[in-house]
User: Which sequence fits this backbone?
């Protein structure tokens, strides 16, 4: 007749996971019965061995169950081996919050993580009464992710922890299995680990192939490509950037960006700014840097494009828009608000719209300068003409002059054959909106306009 093992856990989920583990290893030799505290419990326990999922569960059951003469064991728990690779991929020195609903079990989990070799990060134990943990952007929890602070950006659920080999050995010893049974049970335990290791090796090989493919792709593009993870560590640095910064990719990947790039403004733009693009002089090269976010991996990607390329792309875009009859789409009725200052500004702009004078619109980023520019255009006598918006921040002084006023053939090295018509000429009988004009030296813009048009911007 089979002997009986009784497993007692705290939750139904833990009961199911641990029961499956024990059944896979021991079902041929013993009968296994399982209970969870959050489910209905029997009045007494009838079994040869009682196995508790933790010390706190044993303590809680002390006055609730009659164990009689059964042998009691408190199981040691360890992280499921399938989650080890995910934890090893956390960047070194990261502050990691370990979240559990029991303080003692939290400390035990930290200890088990160290024991399996997860020692490259700094573990911080979760406390229910504490609401904020400075510098923490990663949390690890064994199925208690609902307890994680909402501001933590990356949460890893390692699921229910399994019984470790020491607990399995103690069960074998308690039931008095013979040597042949020992070998079979150990083989089953090790087979699971080996199968997982095979899958990890296969997945790692696929990841290496994918990484090499991505690396080869980003190395052939003309733009510089930089990727930074949530810890501000560089994860991608292509050949174009190696040439631009005179640094090797192998020397900068996995280092914090502020330790690689000395330009504090550039670092702040990539890691903190809400702006999507900005002009920078990088080691003597004039660049427009575009920034985007990959939400799934919390990664920031910065694309370094030479000003010449940026202007060319914008020029092509403007050309296409002109071909398609691009015009201003907003009117005064699209400007919604009741504040006296806004209403007064609208009144003044309506009066200015019917004149032939240049208009200067001032305001912080995002306050609707282009919205007003389009409304003014559509309220003017030029509303049937083109409306062109030009981003002045993406141009050097020389390029700004050539783009606005055009040039003759062979007027300078690199000038296109046949010369080029300026944007002012393209906007003839319409409106040209010089956006971000404040980032350029205003005196230079004023002199250009006086010289070319005899007006003051």
Assistant:
């Amino acid at each position: 007749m089979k002997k009986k093992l009784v497993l007692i856990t705290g939750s139904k989920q833990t009961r199911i996971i641990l029961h499956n583990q024990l059944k896979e290893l021991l079902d041929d030799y013993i009968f296994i019965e399982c209970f969870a505290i959050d489910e209905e419990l029997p009045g007494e326990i009838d079994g040869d061995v009682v196995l508790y999922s933790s010390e706190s569960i044993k303590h809680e059951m002390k006055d609730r169950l009659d164990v009689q003469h059964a042998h009691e064991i408190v199981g040691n728990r360890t992280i499921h081996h399938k989650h080890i690779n995910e934890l090893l991929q956390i960047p070194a020195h990261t502050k990691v919050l370990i979240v559990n609903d029991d303080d003692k079990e939290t400390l035990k989990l930290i200890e088990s993580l160290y024991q399996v070799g997860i020692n490259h990060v700094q573990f911080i134990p979760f406390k229910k009464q504490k609401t904020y943990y400075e510098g923490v952007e990663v949390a690890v929890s064994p199925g208690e992710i609902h307890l994680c602070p909402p501001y933590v950006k990356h949460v890893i659920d390692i699921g229910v922890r399994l019984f470790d080999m020491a607990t399995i050995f103690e069960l074998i010893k308690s039931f008095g299995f013979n040597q042949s049974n020992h070998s079979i049970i150990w083989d089953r335990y090790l087979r699971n680990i080996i199968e997982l290791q095979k899958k990890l090796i296969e997945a790692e090989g696929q990841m290496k192939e994918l990484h090499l493919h991505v690396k080869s792709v980003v190395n052939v593009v003309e733009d510089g490509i930089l990727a930074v993870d949530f810890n501000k560590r560089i994860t991608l640095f292509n050949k174009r950037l190696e040439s631009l910064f005179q640094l090797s990719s192998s020397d900068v990947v996995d280092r914090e960006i502020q330790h690689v790039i000395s330009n504090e403004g550039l670092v702040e733009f990539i890691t903190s700014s809400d702006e999507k693009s900005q002009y920078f002089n990088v080691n003597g090269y004039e660049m427009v840097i575009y920034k985007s976010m990959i939400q799934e991996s919390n990664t920031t990607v910065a694309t370094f494009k030479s000003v010449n390329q940026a202007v060319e792309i914008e020029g092509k875009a403007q050309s296409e828009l002109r071909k398609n009859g691009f015009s201003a789409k907003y009117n005064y009725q699209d400007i919604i608000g009741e504040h006296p200052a806004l209403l007064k500004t609208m009144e003044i702009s309506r009066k200015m719209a019917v004149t032939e004078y240049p208009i200067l619109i001032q305001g912080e980023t995002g306050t609707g300068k282009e919205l007003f520019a389009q409304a003014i255009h559509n309220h003017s006598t030029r509303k049937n003409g083109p409306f062109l918006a030009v981003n002045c921040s993406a141009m050097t002084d020389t390029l700004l002059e050539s783009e606005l006023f055009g040039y003759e053939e062979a007027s300078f090295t690199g000038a296109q054959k046949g010369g080029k018509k300026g944007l002012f000429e393209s906007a003839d009988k319409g409106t040209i909106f010089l956006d971000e004009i404040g980032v350029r030296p205003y005196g230079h813009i004023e002199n250009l306009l006086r010289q070319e048009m005899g007006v003051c911007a």
Q: What stands out?
A: Confidence is low (pLDDT under 50) at residues 453-457. DSSP finds 15 helices and 19 strands in the chain. Residues 13 and 396 are 63 Å apart (CA to CA). Residues 179-220 form the longest helix (42 residues).
